[in-house]
């Protein structure tokens, strides 16, 4: 075939084609939560008090972990709930060398009514399936992962989450665990679930952000893998994040390209409320998902859905708590740091906040961009005694009501606890 006749195929097209194939492929043995076996820890640890400094270290886990092995030849093996401990990995394992690793971040909550809940676990399960196939790891039925998460939480959180109005951090993950060193699609993988004690990270005083410069690198790029929750999105950002904290900032506000397109705040989605320069209408704005730069965050999606239902001009849910708030347009579109600076200088910027599982809904108090310091309004008091913008404060309250069972809502999934039998 003459060179001119060779069809042009982009790497993005090849990746999408391969992902579709893997998502639709039926393996020899599917992931099956009903096959879960239990081996309980005979030397359980003591749950530290809520004010114990060990919780700040983010390395204290519950008594158990859940693991499942997959091989190319045999498919998924039976899941095992077993004592927490090291994974068996050879030094040549693909995950160590080629970032073949995906994960989820979620929480289990102990409600004010004493019940244990998960928040929209089906969304985390679906996203982890997509993230897994993005890095050539196996697909699985998301509903089976969801059932495994529920089974794990039912055992360990009965003991490790005893106090109302508290949470514990859950980390489902999948890694390429086979011993083959070659640059190739992995032939073996291990899926696991652990729970870690985390401190609250939503700052009552507001986050201080340092806007990235081009010499800091790029967090994600169009049609890359910024939309998936894979380890390769996080490691390269840690140097800049560490330097920002040395300078007194909490996170990086990641900008893209010479135009300074606003993308994410650290590893969280970023929102602003402003008056549109051209229409004068009040808008809740966040970056779009279409170019695959932004993570489709579970908290982000929930913020948008609640805002459309309760804050939009065509809101479908009556909410007497927000009569003091002006209705807003809900907008998913690109904007730049220059747009943000201009809005702040012209008095059109109402507030800004970041959201994600770890930071929850965290108001932004200050953004440093080159030599310009932007003070962000925080005019509302929050229930924890802090300050936030009025829209962030309302949305945060609504989410907490669901997570901690103050209101009954389909997003708050109650887990029947079993504990250690």
TrEMBL record:
It catalyses: L-isoleucine + 2-oxoglutarate = (S)-3-methyl-2-oxopentanoate + L-glutamate; L-valine + 2-oxoglutarate = 3-methyl-2-oxobutanoate + L-glutamate; L-leucine + 2-oxoglutarate = 4-methyl-2-oxopentanoate + L-glutamate. It comes from the Eukaryota. Coiled coil: none annotated. GO terms for biological process: L-leucine biosynthetic process; L-valine biosynthetic process. Gene3D superfamilies: 3.30.470.10, D-amino Acid Aminotransferase, subunit A, domain 2 (3.20.10.10). Keywords: Amino-acid biosynthesis, Aminotransferase, Branched-chain amino acid biosynthesis, Pyridoxal phosphate, Transferase. GO terms for molecular function: L-isoleucine-2-oxoglutarate transaminase activity; L-leucine-2-oxoglutarate transaminase activity; L-valine-2-oxoglutarate transaminase activity. Its EC number is 2.6.1.42. GO terms for cellular component: mitochondrion. The modification N6-(pyridoxal phosphate)lysine is found at residue 229. Its cofactor is pyridoxal 5'-phosphate. It is an enzyme of class 2 (transferase). PANTHER family: BRANCHED-CHAIN-AMINO-ACID AMINOTRANSFERASE, SUBGROUP IIII AMINOTRANSFERASE. Belongs to the class-IV pyridoxal-phosphate-dependent aminotransferase family. This is Branched-chain-amino-acid aminotransferase.
């Amino acid at each position: 075939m003459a060179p001119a006749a060779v069809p042009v195929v982009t790497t993005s097209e090849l990746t999408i084609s391969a992902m579709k194939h893997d998502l639709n492929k039926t393996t020899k043995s599917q992931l099956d939560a009903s096959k879960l076996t239990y081996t309980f820890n005979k030397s359980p640890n003591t749950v530290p008090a809520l004010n114990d400094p060990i919780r700040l270290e983010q390395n204290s886990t519950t008594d158990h972990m859940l693991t499942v092995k997959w091989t190319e030849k045999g498919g998924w093996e039976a899941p095992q709930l077993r004592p927490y401990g090291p994974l068996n990995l050879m030094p040549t394992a693909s995950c160590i060398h080629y970032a073949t690793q995906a994960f989820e971040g979620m929480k289990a909550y102990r409600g004010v009514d004493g019940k244990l809940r998960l928040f929209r676990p089906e969304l985390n399960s679906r996203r982890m399936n997509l993230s897994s196939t993005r890095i050539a790891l196996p697909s699985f039925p998301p509903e089976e992962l969801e059932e495994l998460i529920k089974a794990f939480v039912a055992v360990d959180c009965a003991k490790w989450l005893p106090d109302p109005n508290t949470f514990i951090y859950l980390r489902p993950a999948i890694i390429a665990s086979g011993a083959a060193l070659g640059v190739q699609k992995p032939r073996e993988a291990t899926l696991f679930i652990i729970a870690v004690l985390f401190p609250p990270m939503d700052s009552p005083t507001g986050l201080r952000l340092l806007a990235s410069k081009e010499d800091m690198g790029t967090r994600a790029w169009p049609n890359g893998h910024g939309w998936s929750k894979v380890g390769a999105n996080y490691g390269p950002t840690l140097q800049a994040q560490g330097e920002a904290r040395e300078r007194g900032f909490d996170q990086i506000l990641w900008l893209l390209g010479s135009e300074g397109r606003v993308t994410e705040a650290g590893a969280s989605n970023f929102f602003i409320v402003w008056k549109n320069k051209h229409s004068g209408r009040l808008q809740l704005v966040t970056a779009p998902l279409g170019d695959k730069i932004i993570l489709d965050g579970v908290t982000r999606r929930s913020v948008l859905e609640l805002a459309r239902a309760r804050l939009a001009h065509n809101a479908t849910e009556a909410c007497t708590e927000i009569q003091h708030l002006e209705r807003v347009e809900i907008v998913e579109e690109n904007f730049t740091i220059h747009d943000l600076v201009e809005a702040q200088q012209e008095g059109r910027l109402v507030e800004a906040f970041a959201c994600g599982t770890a930071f929850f809904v965290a108001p932004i108090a200050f953004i440093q961009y080159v030599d310009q310091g932007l003070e962000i309004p925080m005019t509302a008091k929050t229930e924890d005694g802090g300050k936030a913008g009025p829209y962030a404060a309302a949305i945060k309250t609504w989410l907490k009501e669901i997570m901690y069972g103050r209101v009954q809502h389909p997003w708050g999934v109650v887990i029947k606890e079993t504990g250690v039998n």
